[in-house]
C-alpha cells in the first residue's frame, strides 16, 4: 500500500498577512541593493588610477540614480541588522547579561565614528 504525503498549498504572497514578515521580506530584498552597491564600489575601485574614468563613472546619470535609490534601502538594511545584533550576539559580564541596548548602541556609535572618519578623509 502506498501513501501520499499531504502538501498544503501555500500562496505566493503568504507573508503579506503579517507585518513582521513584511518587514523581514523588505530587509531581505534590500540585500540586493547592498550587493549592487558593493559591485558599484568595486567598479569605482577598479577606476581609481584613471582620474577621468573615475569621475565619469561617479557622475554618470545612471550611477547617480542608482545611488539615490540604493541609499534608503542600504540604510534600512543597516538599521535592521544593527537592531538584530543583540539577538545574534549574547554577551555576559560575569553572570549578568549585557544590556541589548549597549550592544546595538555600540554598533551605531561605531557606524557614526567610521562615517565621520571617512567624511574627514574624503573632504
Note the main attributes of this structure.
123 residues; mainly alpha; 3 helical TM bundles of succinate and fumarate reductases; two-stranded antiparallel sheet; 4 helices; 72% helix; 3% strand; flat
Structural account:
The chain has helices at 19-46, 51-59, 61-88, 100-122; strands spanning 92-93, 96-97. It has 123 residues and is mainly alpha-helical. The protein has a single domain (15-122), classed as Fumarate reductase/succinate dehydrogenase, transmembrane subunit (3 helical TM bundles of succinate and fumarate reductases, Up-down Bundle), CATH 1.20.1300.10. It has a two-stranded antiparallel ribbon with strand order 1-2. Strand 1 (92-93) and strand 2 form a beta hairpin. Helix 3 packs antiparallel against helix 4. The model has no long low-confidence stretch (mean pLDDT 91).
Topology (elements, then pairings):
Layout lengths: L18 H28 L4 H9 L1 H28 L3 E2 L2 E2 L2 H23 L1
Antiparallel strand pairs: 1-2
Helix pairs in contact: 1-3, 3-4
Structural class: mainly alpha
Uncertain stretches: none
| Molecular shape | flat
Number of domains: 1
Tell me the Rg in angstroms: 21 Å
The CATH top-level class label: Mainly Alpha
Query: SSE string, helix = H, strand = E?
Result: HHHEEH
CATH architecture: Up-down Bundle
Strand arrangement across the biggest beta sheet: 1-2
What fold name stands as the CATH topology?
3 helical TM bundles of succinate and fumarate reductases
Largest sheet: 2 strands, antiparallel
Q: Can you give the mean pLDDT?
A: 91
Assign a percent range to the helix content.
Answer: over 70%
Question: CATH-wise, what's the superfamily?
Answer: Fumarate reductase/succinate dehydrogenase, transmembrane subunit
State the total count of DSSP E strands: 2
Spatial separation of the terminal alpha carbons: 76 Å
Amino acid at each position: 500500500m502506498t501513501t501520499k504525503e499531504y502538501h498544503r498549498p501555500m500562496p505566493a504572497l503568504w507573508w503579506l498577512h503579517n507585518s513582521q514578515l513584511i518587514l523581514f521580506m523588505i530587509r531581505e530584498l534590500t540585500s540586493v541593493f547592498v550587493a549592487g552597491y558593493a559591485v558599484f564600489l568595486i567598479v569605482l575601485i577598479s577606476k581609481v588610477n584613471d582620474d577621468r574614468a573615475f569621475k565619469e563613472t561617479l557622475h554618470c546619470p545612471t550611477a547617480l540614480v542608482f545611488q539615490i535609490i540604493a541609499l534608503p534601502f542600504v540604510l534600512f538594511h543597516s538599521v535592521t541588522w544593527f537592531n538584530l545584533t543583540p539577538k545574534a550576539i549574547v554577551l555576559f559580564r560575569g553572570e549578568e547579561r549585557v544590556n541589548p541596548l549597549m550592544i546595538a548602541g555600540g554598533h551605531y556609535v561605531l557606524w557614526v565614528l567610521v562615517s565621520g572618519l571617512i567624511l574627514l578623509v574624503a573632504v
